[in-house]
């Protein structure tokens, strides 16, 4: 006879399994669809087991991006553009946020809190509100349809600055005094003390910011015009088109699987650091 505790634990596990199944089935469907031909999918006769065209479909979208009904940019180019964008945004946001939070917490200068609140207020402004003036500035600076245009407007983060500031406020004053006694200047204190203490927070934010940069859609759609600068999210959207004609859904699904791989790998390999950065409070 099952114990009462095991009986009460069964329901949460069933709910968890059901949730995972609901979440995972569309991904499984995309994986299976990427192994069949477009006509099989178009007729609605696609089985729920892998087909014989997996290697051909994945190689087609990776190398040429050209199918029966679509002419797309090769996935290799799309993923390279998305990777550059995601990495620059990730490292840029972390670097700028670390330095700005460090200045606000450990330096005393006139209007220090005014500048901090100016940064904080930008959290209340959605991207759509400032996207037109940002677009005009980028065009006037000659950064349209370039990696600089894709990344520079997105490398500042008020959220990351706020999070690092709150973390830096928990650093004991004794560490600051000890560094001064040892003769450490501001840069050495930042490099030898503050940065090592922040590594778990940096890791957690890096995962979030990489995925944020990888999944960008609206800004790359506005700031790029050539196929060689398209990101993979834009590439998938253009492959689907307007829906007025039959699409090569097998190639679209194969491209979608490629698009999911980098974020999934980042989460898998950074999972331990990500969780530790969210829950670790030890200094």
3D architecture notes:
With 283 residues, the chain is mainly alpha-helical. It has a domain of 175 residues: MetI-like (MetI-like fold, Orthogonal Bundle), CATH 1.10.3720. Helix content is 70%, strand content 0%. The protein is built from 15 helices and no strands. It is globular, with a radius of gyration of 24 Å.
For the record, the CATH architecture of the domain at 77-233 and 262-279 stands as Orthogonal Bundle
* CATH superfamily descriptor of the domain at 77-233 and 262-279: MetI-like
Helix and strand pattern: HHHHHHHHHHHHHHH
Overall mean confidence score, pLDDT: 86
CATH class of the domain at 77-233 and 262-279 reads Mainly Alpha
Poorly predicted parts: none
Classify the oligomer: single chain
What percentage of amino acids are in beta strands? under 5%
CATH topology of the domain at 77-233 and 262-279: MetI-like fold
Distance between the termini: 47 Å
> What is the helix tally?
15
Shape: globular
- Biggest sheet, in brief? none
Report Rg.
Answer: 24 Å
The number of E-state strands comes to 0
Helix amount: over 70%
Give me the secondary-structure category: mainly alpha
């Amino acid at each position: 006879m099952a114990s009462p505790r095991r009986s009460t634990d069964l329901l949460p596990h069933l709910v968890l399994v059901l949730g995972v199944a609901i979440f995972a089935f569309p991904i499984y469907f995309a994986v299976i669809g990427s192994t069949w031909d477009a006509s099989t999918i178009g007729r609605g006769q696609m089985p729920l087991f892998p087909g014989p065209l997996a290697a051909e479909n994945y190689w087609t979208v990776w190398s040429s991006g050209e199918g029966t009904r679509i002419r797309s940019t090769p996935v290799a180019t799309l993923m390279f553009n998305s990777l550059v964008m995601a990495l620059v945004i990730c490292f840029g946001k972390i670097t700028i946020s670390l330095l700005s939070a460090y200045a606000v917490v450990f330096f005393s200068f006139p209007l220090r809190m005014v500048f901090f609140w100016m940064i904080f207020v930008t959290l209340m402004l959605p991207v759509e509100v400032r996207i037109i003036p940002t677009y005009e500035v980028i065009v006037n600076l000659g950064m349209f349809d370039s990696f600089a245009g894709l990344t520079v407007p997105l490398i500042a983060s008020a959220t990351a600055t706020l999070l690092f500031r709150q973390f830096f406020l928990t650093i004991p004053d004794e560490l600051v005094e000890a560094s001064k006694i040892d003769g450490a200047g501001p840069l050495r204190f930042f490099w030898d003390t503050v940065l090592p203490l922040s590594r778990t927070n940096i890791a957690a934010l890096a995962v979030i910011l990489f995925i944020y940069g990888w999944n960008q859609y609206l800004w790359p759609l506005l700031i790029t015009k050539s196929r060689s600068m398209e990101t993979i999210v834009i590439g998938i959207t253009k492959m689907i088109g307007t829906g007025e004609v039959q699409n090569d859904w097998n190639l679209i699904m194969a491209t979608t699987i490629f698009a999911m791989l980098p974020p999934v790998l980042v989460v898998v390999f950074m999972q331990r650091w990500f969780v530790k950065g969210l829950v670790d409070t030890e200094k």
